[in-house]
Design brief:
With 149 residues, this protein is mostly helical. The protein is 50% helix and 0% strand.
């Protein structure tokens, strides 16, 4: 399975991000291209620990999180379409797409030196490195497929 912690996978994602243009339109969901790229950069900051926020697992996650995580990372099946963005929903419709792409590609590279031992997913809880690597890849792939990249 692909993982964000493999260099070849990161290079594939960077190439796909770099291919995005204003001509790419959503195949599903409510976000436009700018919102999707901004969503991914904010989400990556969370995973990478850039914003230094506290991490806490939600109550429902404590009940169902590990089971859902195992189901998500057990095979190469892509993430389902139309999963709610929750706290990572982007309200603003417009912004600098090229700047967001640049930030996003830099973040993808940063996973080559990932070190955020405090990370706890708000639903899945604490994740093993292999689970996190697969999950991050699947999330990036999900949004790139959303915009045909």
């Amino acid at each position: 399975m692909k993982t964000i912690f493999e260099n070849t996978t990161r290079q594939e994602l960077i190439k796909r991000i770099n291919s995005l243009t204003e001509k790419n339109t959503a195949q599903w969901g409510k976000m436009n291209l700018y919102q999707m790229t901004k969503h991914c950069t904010i989400w990556n900051d969370w995973i990478l620990g850039v914003d230094k926020q506290g991490y806490k697992q939600e109550f429902m996650g404590k009940i169902f999180g590990k089971m859902a995580l195992r189901s998500l990372v057990k095979n190469d099946k892509p993430m389902d379409k139309n999963i709610p963005a929750g706290n990572f929903a982007i309200k603003g419709l417009d912004g600098n797409l090229e700047q967001q792409k640049k930030i996003w590609m830099e973040q993808i590279e940063a996973y080559g030196n990932y070190s955020n031992p405090d990370f706890i997913h708000n639903f899945f809880g604490r994740m093993k490195p292999d689970e996190l690597g697969i999950f991050v890849y699947k999330h990036m792939d999900h949004h790139l497929r959303q915009f045909n990249a």
